[in-house]
Amino acid sequence: MLETPLSAAALIPALAFATTPATDAPEFKGPSILDFFPPAIFFEGNEFFEMNRIMLLRLVIVALIFILFWLGTRKMQLVPGRFQGTIEMGLEFVRKSIVEDLLGQKDGKRFLPLITTIFFLVLFMNLTGIVPGINISANSVIGMPLVLAVAAYIAFIWAGLRKHPWAFLRNALFPPGVPPFLYIIVTPIEFVSMFVLRPVTLTLRLLMNMIVGHLLLVLFFSATAFFMVELGGWWIAASAVTLAFGTAFTFFEILVSVLQAYVFALLTTVYIQLALADEH
Amino acid sequence: MDANTVLAEINGNIATVGYGLSAIGAGIGVGIVVGKTIESVARQPELQGRLTVLMYIGIAFTEALAFIGIATYFIFTN
Questions:
Q1: Does the residue B6 lie in any domain?
Q2: CATH no. for residue B70?
Q3: Which Pfam families does the record associate with it (chain B) (predicted)?
């Protein structure tokens, strides 16, 4: 249904020859969604253990985080060196400006391990998107964001149910200060927003950021290669522009990676905070 | 030139337009969130820390709508 071509006869005639390139001209191949499903490398054909390079990358990242934090906190010194200082700065950022700021000292201490784990997993897995040679974020296939979102989902529901089951459900489904007859409308909306939309948006926000980031970078850099190698001549001027944009967006992707890790950890904390809150 | 002549033809999927449309709303929304935060910080600079956190939460919620727009493209093209 959606695949029918639009024939817009009212458009300017100049488009007519622009859309039909000559057959022998070099053809530009842009990024596609298939980038995220590379061929299997291990256990090919096995239904459960088949592995492609993105899954391998996730395991490598987990090992990297483990080694990095182990090395950084192995010989703790009162006056930290440069490496220990960096690790401490990262950990303190999560503890001070995310967890304790929103949850306070007492509750913060309980949820600190979870939120620190989420923050650093998301951060490191995002950053692989801009590492040359890897060029794909470990979060750009739905599995990893989904696992992290499910962890956050279980955490905030568990936090609420553990502390005050009835008050938690009442605050969530029957928000106070609403006229009783409006609960017919409000309760379903609140239910969907809390138990469906929260984990879905957590997953989609991270996943789509990483997919779009990868597609943008691949588009710019493959366009650069196309202009420079395939077309040549005066087109090299165009390749300078795409190269500049590609470089700029690489820095933008670093920003997005850090920001998404921050937002994911922050939203998890906010959801836990809302679940722990007493009467509004 | 009779009525059936096709002067211009665009191939592709109409679902691509969907993301463009969904980006409009999120773009306006993020703009309002950030703009209002700047206004508030200009009024009360000492609240900057708290307001920045609130700004990021606001951006995250607003921006999610645009990303749902991209997701629907991948869902409906199949």
A1: no
A2: 1.20.20.10
A3: ATP-synt_C
